[in-house]
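Help needed: design a sequence for this.
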């Protein structure tokens, strides 16, 4: 199936009354399983690619080139399943965003997700996130929309404003991004069922919700999300989390040791398995005062 057909399939699924459930994919076997189980979309998780492909935490260390290559491989595996692909902040200024969209589109993805964090970004369920101004992200979003050669490519605008600025600012940004032409809006890390419902009521665009195991957002059922009107539910951590749990328990058994000290229950603990604490120390060591 051509990328154009897959993009159209995803757009039709977004417009339908049901919720598009998109499990996280990060390597060949996770993509094969999602395809064989008949999901209507897959989600290339940046956190999963960073951890599984490069042994790194999700703090902006993986490059555009590395992400594009992973996206291309996943598209090749997901022959009949649309791929929604995480592109972090677009990897730079509007000029870089244009090239990012061009490269992701050439790789065959069906949707590209861009966020309004400052670079280097962090996983949306980690603390101390920093944002770019609304106007700066709107310029990058416009660049992304203009860069498409296939108008069927879905552009998803994500705001991380809930953490640093609160839910009111997050909804304000979300509506600004929708007004600018984003196809789907993604408000990251709402805290509680009331905020999930409020976003659905107040943001006037197709909505994506991110359901992370142990994260800040409660895991709502697909039935409830459908009732609220959400279009897409991504589950980026589910396959990776279960795989990591199985690897940890089986390797601990082989080593004759207790796995519980390493067993993660939230995203920061998972990322510590791939060096979050060490990389955070490096970042603090070279932090530029006033930046």
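Sure. Designed sequence:
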């Amino acid at each position: 199936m051509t990328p154009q057909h897959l993009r159209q399939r995803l757009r039709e699924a977004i417009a339908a009354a049901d919720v598009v459930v998109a499990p996280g994919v990060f390597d060949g076997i996770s993509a094969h399983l999602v395809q064989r189980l008949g999901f209507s979309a897959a989600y290339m998780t940046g956190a999963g690619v960073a951890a599984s492909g490069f042994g790194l935490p999700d703090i902006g260390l993986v490059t555009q080139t590395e992400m594009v290559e992973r996206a291309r491989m996943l598209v090749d595996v997901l022959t009949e399943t649309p791929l929604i692909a995480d592109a972090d902040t677009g990897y730079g200024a509007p000029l870089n965003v244009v090239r990012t969209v061009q490269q992701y589109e050439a790789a065959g993805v069906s949707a590209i997700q861009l966020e309004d964090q400052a670079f280097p970004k962090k996983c949306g369920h980690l603390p101390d996130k920093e944002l770019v101004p609304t106007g700066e992200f709107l310029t990058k979003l416009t660049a992304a929309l203009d860069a498409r050669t296939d108008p069927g490519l879905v552009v998803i605008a994500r705001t991380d404003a809930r953490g640093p600025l609160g839910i009111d600012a997050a909804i304000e940004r979300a509506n600004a991004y929708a007004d600018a032409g984003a196809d789907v809006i993604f408000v990251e890390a709402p805290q509680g069922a009331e905020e999930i419902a409020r976003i659905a009521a107040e943001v006037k665009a197709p909505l994506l919700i991110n359901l992370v195991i142990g994260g800040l957002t409660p895991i709502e059922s697909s039935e409830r999300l459908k009732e609220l009107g959400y279009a897409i539910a991504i589950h980026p951590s589910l396959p990776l989390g279960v795989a990591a749990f199985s690897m940890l328990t089986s390797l601990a058994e082989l080593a004759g040791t207790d796995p519980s000290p390493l067993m993660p229950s939230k995203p920061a603990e998972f990322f510590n398995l791939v060096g979050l604490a060490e990389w955070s120390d490096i970042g603090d060591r070279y932090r530029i005062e006033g930046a």
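The domain at 3-239 is CATH 3.20.20.60 (TIM Barrel).
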